[in-house]
């Protein structure tokens, strides 16, 4: 059983002030590099890609009109866009990638985003529009309507300039909010100031990048530097926050639970000093037990131990949750024990004054909205949790964040929803009504939107002084709305014991000046360290932080990472030349920007090379960074001697806080969840052996599961469900039911192709996304296996196809769109009546995606297409064990791998180990035989 004995933690040499400065400055410099890269990609995407190409790739919607404008929660303007029948034969949107929570920009449809200074036509089109783009957050999406939520539009904002500059250059806008512009059609003033919106009759909606996170992380690190007493140089490139919610966090301290002054000589709390190696982590002795019987009586021993470990930590604890081990379940129980047991509240004699009588305050954060909502759903979804919160007499739980980014089923828990339904919220309802009326007068239905509808009379737009007066009225009403709403927000948050937000969202104005007893960060290994500091700086003196995650799965996405930034390649000697050549080729594909094709490729590289790390930044990498020898196991093993480590500036942004602390203090700082509930033991075997030191154990409920256990599985007519358990039968039936299947294409010359080299006869070859790799023969094998599964009754929703390459995802998706898989033969009923006939499966219903998008999820059957097959043995970023770990641990009942073992194993190491394991343990299907059929 893990303990917290001091001798199990590595000794850490306290960093000097100069070293702290170097560490902080390196973080700021890396963040600026990442910001610059995202700006560059966004500029290229908007300036080098024609709008029709953007729409073809789901990144834009063209020829839209405004269906209406109304006031939503938080005084946000909700702009509803549609495809007017006057301009389109169908009002339904084409296929697109807009989802609630995406940042998007409304642009004048008449202006081309292609910057061609030598083109007279582009110059003329640029002069047509003087309106500025309008940025907002996608609030709601339907087949024919999309709603954009626009917050307070700040004058002179430095936000998202990278995305807007190219559009402004194309439109001829100079970005000066003080210049009085005239509408080209009506001659009306279109000065954009504060809240005023001037929307052309025809617009397009374009996805854009959001820099708000960079601004907030930079400000957070600057405040951390101030607390530590060191001077750093910040870029200062962003002074305001997003178009999101007016949520800068430099507001004066809130009434009530204000942040107390730091109580250490350096100005930093004990938690901050511990996280940076200035103080040693401490644990309660004896360990703290659960104050109440578990709310969830199905917790296993490792989950209960993890909760005790976290409760015993005085500053920080790490919960290591491998795939399927119930990490979220353990965190939810930890939260409920803290709240119901009122643990973590400062004692009366610790200098906190009268706070010993209040309830514990917990800030629960995650790397993404999905991670946060997953936790929230588990908390509010159980009646016993709701009852416990009710008994506490506190306000319970409040979810911060833009409503568009919160699951619809959880809207009642959001701050916006609670504000509108609370007794205090009634004070602002009358202002909202006045606002809606004023906006309706400013934006009457246009002729295009009322075409064919004789019941709606076209009303003239307000002009001149009348229009300006009405906009001034809108601004004053919104100001009053926000003032009243701030009072409501304070009242709600004063009552809440649990506040839930993303790490970024925790830095909003709503929490300015508030502090918490405990901060819990889920999926901490997917978050940049800098963004984790946003909630951490809200921990009171004497409080603690709990980090949960798996450093052996995907790290945070870093677009600016160059292939030479990592240090793993320096440790690898085999195949060094071939791998270097391959990585240089891939890097060249994604960094060229001399042509439109290069820019488009770079902008789309998110799911490919640009998203991949230069090395496996797992525990080994972190330990190497901090010069600590590898240490097996958790706190219950002391096989390695104690070592002294030291804080060092990060090499890349991929080094997460979780990994850094694990490397700095050793495995004594973490506890492992060791029972997994997802996959059968065959699928679990390799990742358990290669990454988790054989410490994982499959629970009885999943240890032997297979596709045969599914209620919808159809056995061949000649065999019953129980037949064939001894492995006898035809090969095809074995492939359908085997727990691990490997289609090995070695020796078949089924080589990969680069999308930039394709002639267009096979697979997609669009401008956006060029440079990625695909393999048509592997795609064909994927479809063949799907047909075998469907013939045995497996449904589309039980299957997922994954690939690390976006071009392969696009190729397989395009093939599935035109594929229909025949159902199994009719089954006779038990009563001898008419046979039951299953429906054919439409290939489009089968999920296909990149590995990155599948983290945290699971499916009964997962098919992985590895793509890489070449004569040089080049594998590129395929050798990143964390990405493959995610891919192979998504499957519950069957894992299918399609790839070339000779190419994949050619570089040795982890990939060769995996190929050897598949050869020995999987059902290896002869692709040579299949190709001859």
Polypeptide structure, described:
Its EC number is 3.6.4.12. It is a single chain. The N terminus is likely disordered. The protein has a seven-stranded parallel sheet, sandwiched between helices. Strands 2-3-6-5-4-7 form a six-stranded antiparallel beta barrel. Strands 24-21-25-26-18-27 form a six-stranded parallel sheet, with helices on both faces. β12, α14 (529-536) and β13 form a beta-alpha-beta unit. Among the domains are: 34-213, Elongation Factor Tu (Ef-tu), domain 3 (Beta Barrel), CATH 2.40.30.270; 700-932, 3-Layer(aba) Sandwich (Rossmann fold). By secondary structure, it is α/β, with parallel strands linked by helices. It has 26 helices and 27 strands.
Short structural summary:
It is found in: Cytoplasm; Nucleus. The protein contains 26 helices and 27 strands. It is α/β, with parallel strands linked by helices and 933 residues long.
């Amino acid at each position: 059983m893990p303990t917290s004995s001091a001798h199990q933690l590595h000794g850490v040499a306290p960093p000097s002030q100069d070293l702290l400065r170097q560490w902080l400055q390196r973080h700021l410099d890396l963040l600026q590099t990442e910001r610059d890269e995202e700006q560059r990609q966004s500029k290229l995407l908007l300036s080098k890609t024609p709008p029709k190409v953007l729409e073809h790739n789901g990144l834009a919607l063209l020829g839209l009109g405004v269906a209406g404008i109304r006031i939503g929660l938080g005084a946000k303007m909700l702009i509803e866009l549609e495809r007017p029948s006057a301009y389109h034969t169908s009002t339904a949107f084409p296929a697109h990638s807009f989802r609630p929570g995406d940042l998007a920009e409304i642009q004048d449809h008449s202006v081309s985003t292609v910057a061609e200074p030598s083109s007279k036509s582009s110059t003329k089109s640029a002069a047509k529009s003087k309106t500025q783009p309008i940025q907002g957050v996608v609030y709601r999406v339907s087949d024919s309507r999309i709603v954009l939520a626009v917050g307070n539009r700040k004058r002179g904002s430095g936000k998202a300039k990278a995305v807007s500059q190219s559009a402004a250059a194309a439109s001829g806008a100079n970005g000066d909010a003080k210049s009085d512009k005239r509408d080209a059609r009506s001659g009306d003033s279109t000065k954009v100031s504060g809240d005023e919106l001037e929307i052309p009759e025809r617009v397009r909606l374009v996805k854009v990048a959001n820099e708000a996170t960079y601004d907030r992380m930079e400000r957070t690190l600057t405040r951390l530097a101030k607390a530590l007493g060191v001077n750093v140089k910040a870029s200062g490139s962003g002074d305001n926050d997003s178009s999101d919610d007016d949520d800068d966090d430099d507001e004066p301290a809130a009434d009530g639970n204000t942040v107390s002054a730091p109580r250490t000589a350096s100005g930093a709390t004990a938690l901050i000093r511990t996280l940076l190696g200035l103080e040693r982590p401490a644990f309660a002795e004896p360990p703290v037990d659960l104050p109440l019987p578990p709310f969830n009586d199905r917790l296993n021993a490792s989950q209960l131990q993890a909760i005790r470990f976290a409760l015993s930590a005085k500053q920080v604890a790490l919960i290591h949750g491998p795939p399927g081990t119930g990490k979220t379940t353990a965190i939810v129980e930890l939260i409920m024990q803290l709240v119901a047991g009122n643990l973590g509240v400062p004692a009366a004699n610790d200098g906190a004054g009268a706070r010993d009588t209040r309830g514990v305050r917990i800030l629960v954060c995650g790397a993404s909205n999905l991670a946060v909502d997953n936790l929230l759903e588990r908390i509010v979804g159980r009646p016993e949790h709701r009852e416990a919160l009710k008994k506490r007499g506190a306000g319970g739980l409040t979810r911060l964040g833009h409503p568009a980014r919160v699951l619809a089923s959880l809207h009642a828990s959001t701050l916006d929803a609670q504000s509108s339904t609370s007794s205090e919220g009634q004070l602002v309802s009358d202002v909202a009504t006045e606002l809606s009326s004023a906006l309706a007068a400013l934006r009457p239905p246009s002729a295009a939107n009322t075409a064919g509808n004789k019941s709606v009379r076209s009303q003239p737009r307000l002009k001149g002084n009348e229009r300006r007066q009405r906009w001034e009225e809108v601004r004053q009403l919104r100001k009053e709305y926000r003032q009243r709403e701030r009072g409501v927000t304070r009242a709600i948050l004063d009552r809440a014991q649990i506040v839930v937000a993303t790490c970024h969202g925790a830095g909003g104005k709503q929490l300015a000046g508030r502090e918490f007893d405990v901060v819990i960060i889920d999926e901490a290994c997917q978050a940049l360290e800098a963004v984790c500091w946003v909630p951490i700086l809200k921990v009171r003196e004497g409080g603690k932080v709990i980090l949960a995650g798996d450093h052996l799965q995907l790290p945070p996405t870093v677009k600016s990472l160059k292939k030479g930034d990592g240090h793993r390649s320096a440790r690898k000697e085999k195949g060094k030349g071939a791998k270097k050549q391959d990585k240089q080729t891939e890097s060249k594909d994604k960094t060229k920007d001399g042509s439109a094709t290069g820019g488009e490729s770079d902008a789309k590289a998110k799911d490919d090379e640009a998203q991949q790390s230069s090395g496996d930044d797992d525990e080994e990498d972190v330990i190497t960074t901090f010069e600590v020898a590898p240490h097996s196991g958790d706190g219950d093993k002391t096989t390695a001697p104690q070592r002294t480590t030291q804080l060092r500036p990060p090499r890349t942004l991929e080094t997460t806080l979780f990994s850094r602390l694990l490397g700095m203090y050793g495995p004594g700082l973490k506890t492992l969840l060791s029972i997994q509930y997802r996959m059968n033991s065959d699928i679990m075997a390799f990742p358990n052996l290669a990454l988790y030191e054989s410490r994982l154990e499959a629970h009885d409920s999943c240890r032997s599961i297979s596709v045969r256990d599914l209620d919808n599985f159809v056995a061949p007519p000649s065999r019953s469900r129980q037949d064939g358990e001894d492995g006898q039968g035809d090969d095809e039936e074995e492939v359908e039911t085997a727990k691990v299947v490997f289609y090995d294409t070695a020796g078949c010359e089924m080589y990969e192709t680069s999308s930039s080299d394709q002639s267009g006869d096979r697979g997609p070859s669009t401008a956006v996304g060029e440079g990625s790799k695909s393999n048509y023969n592997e795609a064909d094998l994927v479809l063949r296996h799907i047909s075998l599964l469907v013939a045995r009754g497996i449904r589309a929703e039980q299957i997922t196809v994954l690939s690390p390459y976006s071009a392969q995802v696009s190729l397989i998706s395009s093939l599935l769109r035109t594929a229909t898989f025949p159902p199994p033969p009719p089954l006779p009923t038990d009563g001898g009546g008419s046979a039951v006939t299953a429906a054919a499966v439409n290939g489009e219903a089968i999920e296909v995606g990149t590995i990155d998008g599948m983290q945290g999820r699971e499916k009964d059957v997962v098919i992985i297409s590895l793509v890489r097959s070449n004569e040089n043995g080049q594998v590129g970023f395929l050798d990143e064990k964390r990405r493959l770990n995610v891919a192979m641990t998504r499957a519950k009942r069957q894992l299918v791998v399609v790839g070339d073992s000779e190419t994949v194993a050619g570089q040795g190491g982890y990939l060769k180990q995996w190929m050897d394991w598949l050869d020995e343990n999987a059902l290896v299907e002869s692709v040579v035989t299949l190709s001859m059929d």
